[in-house]
Amino acid sequence: MAQIILSINAGSSSVKVSVYKANGKSEDPTQLAEAQVEGLTAPPAKLKYERGDEKVKGKELDGIKTQEDAFRFILDQLTKDEGLPELNHIEDIKFTCHRVVHGGDYPRSQIIDEDTYHHIETLSDLAPLHNAPALTIVHAVTSLLPNATNIAYFDSSFHSTIPPHIHTYPIDQVIAKRNQLRKYGFHGISYTFIVHAVSAYLSKPTSTLNIIALHLGSGASACVIKGGKSLDTSMGLTPLAGLPGATRSGSIDPSLIFHFTHDAGMPSRSSSKHMHITTAEEILNKNSGWKSLTGTTDFGLISASDKPECQLAFFILVDRILNYVGSYYLKLGGEVDALVFAGGIGERGARLRSEVVGRARCLGFELDEGRNEEPGDGVVTDVGREGARHRTLICRTDEQLEMARGVTEESERFEGGEIAG
Ligand SMILES: Nc1ncnc2c1ncn2[C@@H]1O[C@H](COP(=O)(O)OP(=O)(O)O)[C@@H](O)[C@H]1O
Ligand SMILES: CC(=O)OP(=O)(O)O
Ligand SMILES: [Mg+2]
Question: Where does substrate bind (predicted)?
Answer without folding.
Answer: 99
